[in-house]
């Protein structure tokens, strides 16, 4: 894959979003948009069709589970990486239905991010640019 | 008496007849009474005996009143016998035998009734014993049920309390890890942006912050893992895959040597939970081995079990600590929660496996049975 991978970032913690976007740009990932709840995540996905969705789970009103389900409804092949502080029992049960491609626990290392980006290339049926 | 003497006078040798006839009656009566008693075991009909006696007496009288006259001598003899009390003695003997017979029968009946009463008493006693036995069994069952209720109530209260603690810590973990993540990302950004990446003191400070972040994260995870009593989610994975995920969570120690068996092993288990086990054991090994230490991880299939061994070059564990090493809240480290190995034991138990530890060299052995 020659082109730079694209991504959207969704987290209700604005500091996290701002810093993470900067972080992604440095490790050579183009951030197409940022959102702060699950509803915005779905809208951003519909609008940008990014290669990767970096999604927080626990957000007020429209959470990450809502986003994951609705993004997959839009595109069953969407590459969704959940970045979360905690996966509790409820989360485990909800993931039974719609599994994210990866789950990264906060706080994370740079290697974990580059790893999931590298795995994007292994995923079959990459979307056309 | 005069009338009687006159009538008796008609019979010759009456003494023989009277003296032989009277005991005969008594014997016959007694015999018939005994035989009837023996035959059907019933009380002898008193009126029947009276009738027999009366008819014999009448016969005798008729005989005496017959045409044969008694001589005076005979009459006197008979009169003398009567007056000497011989006849009355014979009558009283007859009465005595009869009464004796009656007494025997009554005694026999009493005996029978006694044995019946005994039988009845025995039955009553048996039944009472049965009731007592049943009652004690009922009481036992009641106690058992009451105990069960107590245990279940306690368990319910504990579960509820644990659920509350679990929810609280889950929220706490979430609220701590988010800012920790901000710190970590910022630290990485600062590190990348800095022009002083070659400055050892700068790198040392970055490492110190990273270590602090790791310690906080690990402690939060420890508590969460210990409280998280989630059902197993079994899947096929491999030892290498679990090791990789575990090592991602652990800080790197450049001075240490980590030997991982090149040949991989398929393991069916709860992958996320197995990562918790590997992380905890490896962290212990790394801390024990010291800066220049060596850690070896081996795995093999032994029958139906997957056996994983973690060996480190550390100085080992004291005998007293060896006993307590898997107890919750037991720790020898200032920064430890004492929950790491306790959690490992819980998770391995959930898998139906075992964990053990030995010295020389310090080796933790995890055995996992094949999953169905």
What share of residues are in beta strands of chain A?
15-25%
> What fraction strand of chain B?
5-15%
Largest interface, counted by CB within 8 Å of the partner chain's CB: A-B, 22 and 25 residues
Taking the sheet with the most strands of chain A, its summary is: 5 strands, parallel
* Helix count from the secondary structure assignment of chain B: 10
What's the β-strand tally of chain B? 7
- Largest beta sheet: strand ordering of chain B: 2-4-5-7-6
Number of helices of chain A: 5
Q: What is the average of the pLDDT values of chain B?
A: 82
Oligomerization state of this entry? heterodimer
Count every beta strand of chain A, where a strand is a DSSP E run of 2 or more residues: 5
Distance between the termini of chain A: 11 Å
SS content category of chain A: alpha/beta
**In terms of per-residue confidence, which ranges of chain A show pLDDT below 50 for 5 or more consecutive residues?**
none
Strand order of the largest sheet of chain A: 2-1-3-4-5
What's the Cα radius of gyration of chain A?
A: 13 Å
**Unreliable parts of chain B:** 1-34
Q: pLDDT average of chain A, as an integer?
A: 87
Radius of gyration of chain B, taken over Cα atoms and rounded to an integer in Å: 57 Å
Q: H/E order of the elements of chain B?
A: HHHHHHEHEEHEEHHEE
């Amino acid at each position: 894959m020659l082109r730079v991978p694209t991504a959207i970032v969704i987290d209700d913690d604005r500091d996290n979003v701002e810093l993470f976007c900067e972080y992604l740009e440095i490790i050579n990932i183009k951030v197409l948009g940022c959102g702060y709840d699950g509803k915005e995540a779905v809208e951003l996905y519909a609008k940008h069709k990014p290669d990767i969705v970096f999604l927080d789970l626990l957000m007020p009103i429209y959470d990450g589970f809502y986003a994951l389900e609705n993004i997959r409804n839009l595109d069953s092949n969407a590459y969704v990486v959940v970045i979360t502080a905690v996966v509790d029992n409820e989360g485990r049960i909800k993931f039974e239905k719609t599994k994210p491609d990866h789950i990264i626990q906060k706080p994370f290392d740079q290697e974990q991010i580059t790893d999931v980006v590298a795995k994007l290339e292994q995923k079959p049926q990459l979307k056309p640019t | 008496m005069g009338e009687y003497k006159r009538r008796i006078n008609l019979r010759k040798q009456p003494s023989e007849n009277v003296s032989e006839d009277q005991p005969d009656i008594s014997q016959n009566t007694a015999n018939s009474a005994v035989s009837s008693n023996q035959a059907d075991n019933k009380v002898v009909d008193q009126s029947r005996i009276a009738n027999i006696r009366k008819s014999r007496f009448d016969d005798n009288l008729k005989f005496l009143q017959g045409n044969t006259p008694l001589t005076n001598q005979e009459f006197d003899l008979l009169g003398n016998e009567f007056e000497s009390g011989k006849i009355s003695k014979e009558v009283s003997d007859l009465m005595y035998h009869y009464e004796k017979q009656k007494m025997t029968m009554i005694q026999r009946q009493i005996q029978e009734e006694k044995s019946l009463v005994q039988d009845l008493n025995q039955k009553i006693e048996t039944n009472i014993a049965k009731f007592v036995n049943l009652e004690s069994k009922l009481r036992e069952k009641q106690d058992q049920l009451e105990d069960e209720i107590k245990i279940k109530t306690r368990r319910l209260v504990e579960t509820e309390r644990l659920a509350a603690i679990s929810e609280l810590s889950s929220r706490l973990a979430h609220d701590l890890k988010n800012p920790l993540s901000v710190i970590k990302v910022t630290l990485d950004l600062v590190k990348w942006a800095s022009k002083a990446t070659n400055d050892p003191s700068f790198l040392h400070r970055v490492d110190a912050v990273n270590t602090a972040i790791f310690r906080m994260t690990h402690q939060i995870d420890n508590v969460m893992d210990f409280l998280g009593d989630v059902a197993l989610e079994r899947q096929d994975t491999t030892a290498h895959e679990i090791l990789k995920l575990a090592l991602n969570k652990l800080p790197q120690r450049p001075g240490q040597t980590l030997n991982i068996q090149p040949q991989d092993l398929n393991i069916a288990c709860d992958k996320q939970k197995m990562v918790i086990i590997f992380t905890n054991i490896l962290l212990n090994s790394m801390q024990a081995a010291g800066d220049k230490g060596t850690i070896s991880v081996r795995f093999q299939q032994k029958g139906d079990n997957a056996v994983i061994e973690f060996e480190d070059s550390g100085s080992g564990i004291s005998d007293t600590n060896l006993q307590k090493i898997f107890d919750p809240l037991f720790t020898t480290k200032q920064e430890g929660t004492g929950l790491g190995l306790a959690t490992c034991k819980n998770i391995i138990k959930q898998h139906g496996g075992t964990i053990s530890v030995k010295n020389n060299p310090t080796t933790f052995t995890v055995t996992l049975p094949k999953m169905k």
